[in-house]
Amino acid sequence: MSGGDMATQTPQIVEFPSIRRAGQGGAAPARFHERFGSDNHVLDAAWPRITTQASEAPFAPRRDGLRVLLINAPIREWSFPNILPIGHAYVAAVAAMDGHTIDVLDLNAERKQPVKSSPEAFVKWVESRVTETLEQRRPDVIGLGGIITQYSWIRRIANLCRRVHPDVPIVLGGGIASSMPEFMVRRLGVDVVVQEEGEITFSEVLHRLERRASLEGVKGVAYRHAIRPGEWDVRNNGLRPSLPSRALGLDTLPWPLRSRWAEDEVYKINPVGHLNWQTKWIDGAAVAPGQYSLSMISAKRIGCAALARSSTRWNISSSATTPPTSTSSTTCS
User: Fold this and answer.
1) Nearest to 1 by CA among 136, 192, 130
2) pLDDT at residue 106 in the model
3) Whether the Cβ atoms of residue 172 and residue 161 lie closer than 8 Å to each other
4) Would 270 disulfide with which of 10, 80, 142, 168, CB 3.0-4.6 Å?
5) Could you tell me the residue ranges of all domains in the chain?
6) CATH number of 3-267
7) Residues 1, 212 contacting (CB under 8 angstroms)
8) What would the pLDDT profile of 29-60 be if each residue is shown by its tens digit?
9) Would you call 2 helix, strand, or coil by DSSP?
């Protein structure tokens, strides 16, 4: 099923099983997103969820469930991989609770240590691992995600996924997706972007994809919408309301599905405080009234303290503007 086919399906009314209010008992709904009402309050906080590896057992994969492949792109190649992709692990837990089969390709963990080969050799290795995994696992849905500094890698991987499996929907999440959802749909070649909190939204997206139903009305997504053969635009359904706190919402989310990642073999044994031996400076500047700017710097080595100040003054309430000013300084001892 291609992204275009997905978007052109006639919207279907999805009939969900009746859901009992909290305290009334009853079995949990078949899909995680069905546990929440229109106000995003959980309907029964006592329903079981994944919290430990032992608690995964009741949520066995369904024979008719989807095979979901989650790919973690490389990040900070100069450093030891020491941060498990927690966002991937959260949505993996939700997908597992919905009865889908979860496969993981963690390109960051597989390198195990700072990359010492040439950039060309590392790119070749990444592409070979992605191609090999796609051919072996043959996923029904591909999930990508991360932060904005992974943009180039995610774009490369998304394009490769499209070449190998052109009809498999690609779903993007994480900070990179929420920052500029429409832009990412257009530039990265993905079919669906999940914005902000992804657990409930990802569950509903997978449910729609499984039923080959339209994504119309699914809050929290932007997606490709086919206008006519060979032509499409981007639809943004708006944000899903945030989950309420504690037992009304956040406390009823599953814990990350850590068992699918090399936590003990890689992430727990690598030093958390590994030094950033690279220097990266991004001098942000607003180019139009009302836009924001952001300047970032990372220290080159121990003993080098960096200070960046950026001040942009715009009178958004009127047509008059004050030219932006910015200063930056670094001092090394």
Assistant:
1) 192
2) 98
3) no
4) 80
5) 3-267, 281-332
6) 3.40.50.280
7) yes
8) 999 999 999 888 999 999 999 999 999 999 99
9) coil
The two structure tokens encoding residue 229: 């053969």
Q: Among 244, 206, 232, which Cα is nearest to 99's?
A: 206
d(CA 313, CA 262): 47
DSSP assignment string, 217-268: T-TTEEEEEEEETTEEEEEE--PPPPPPSGGGTGGGSPPP-GGGS-IIIIIT
- Looking at the chain, the whole-number percentage of residues with pLDDT higher than 90 is 65
CA 128 to chain centroid, in Å, comes to 22
C-alpha dihedral sign at 181, 102, 258, 156: negative
Residue 178: its H or E element: helix 175-179
Q: Distance from CA of residue 160 to its chain's centroid?
A: 18
- In tens, the pLDDT along 87-141 reads 999 999 999 999 999 999 999 999 999 999 999 999 999 999 999 999 999 999 9
Is-contact 30 204, C-beta < 8 A?
A: no
From 176, 245, 171, 161, select the one nearest 201 (Cα to Cα). 171
SS3 content of the chain, % helix, strand, coil (to 5): 30, 20, 50
How sure is the predictor about 190, in pLDDT bands with cuts at 50, 70 and 90? very high
**Sequence-distant (≥ 6) Cβ neighbours of residue 107 within 8 angstroms:** 71, 72, 73, 74, 126, 129, 130
> pTM of the prediction?
0.77
Three-state secondary structure call for residue 194: strand
Mean pLDDT of 61-84: 94
Mean pLDDT along residues 282-294? 52
DSSP state for residue 36 in the 8-state scheme: B
Q: How confident is the model at residue 208 (pLDDT cuts 50, 70, 90)?
A: very high
- Residue 297 tokens read as 């710097």
* CA distance linking residue 181 with residue 193, whole number of Å: 6
**Closest of 181, 175, 180 to residue 197, by C-alpha:** 175
What pairs with residue 297 in β-bridges? 281
- Find the helix packing angle between 151-164 and 181-188, rounded to 10°: 50
